[in-house]
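Researcher: Please translate sequence to structure tokens.
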Amino acid sequence: MPCLIYPFVFVFVFVVFCTVVQSVDGDLIDCVLVNQQPAFDHPQLRGEKPLEVPDRPNGHEVDGMEEASFQLWHLSGESCPEGTIPIRRTSEAEVLRASSIRRFGRKPRRFVRRDSSGTDHEHAVGYVAGDQYYGAKGSINVWAPRVANPYEFSLSQMWIISGSFGDDLNTIEAGWQVSPELYGDSYPRFFTYWTTDAYQTTGCYNLLCSGFVQTNNRIAIGAAISPTSSYNGGQFDISLLIWKDPKHGNWWLEFGSGILVGYWPAFLFTHLRDHASMIQFGGEVVNSRPGGFHTFTQMGSGHFSREGFGRASYFRNLQVVDWDNSLIPLANLRVLADHPNCYDIQGGINKVWG
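Model: Translation complete:
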């Protein structure tokens, strides 16, 4: 099929794609030549090719309920050919919903405290700190929480963190989110994020800036997830592994049953060029206080942790990667909820789930 030229909305470069897939949810998925993806507009990546697959951490085992066809766009029966990657097309309406062109695809600037809370962002997280971490793994229960208005979001994710929680905060993030402002709907979507300056001027969601290098032709970052979990019904989770390649120092992302998505180049970061100092697993919402009252936006399933499996959202099989590139169980997991009357969290050990 002949290739087409399309002006990529956010980074303002011309992208070559050879196939367009129409998703049942209205998304357009462009199959972009791998060397034409936004990452290779970065001065340090121009003319380069994606790196070879690194060794997985020792002790890594396939986990998760999901399959490779976990996204709605796969229902079309089409896929992207080898040598390309799927990129969800950004619409004009999505750009215009942002506060500015420069802020499109980025989390709002905010004061970040060591306990993870900000001004209008509320969290319920489990975390480990006080050591040197080289990655993390976990399975994240997927729901479709209600988001009260277009300027709020709800997400469940893992954070790889280093820095002083001031302007030099480095994070790598991945999980699922419902964000009407960013995507224009209420579907839970697979997402990634990174920053090196506490969400001020660096980093972005997904592939909306030069940074993350995607290597996989089956997963569209930012595309809708299906199926999702239901209250007192079937449960669905996605397994994610992020780890630092000991050879090149890049941070790789693996999805589910051994599917490598891509990597964040080490040169993007300052503190994370070496290691992480904190790992977090949990949920986050934006509370814009509509009408002066706390938002009705749900976190996770929208139910408290005491309700248990099938009702409350969960993270399971949580591990970290140590200095020897080995996956080990979490030690001294602590939990924190910024507003426990609205969103809470409990930790525990289960022989089946870890």
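Researcher: Any highlights?
Model: The first helix runs from residue 92 to 97.
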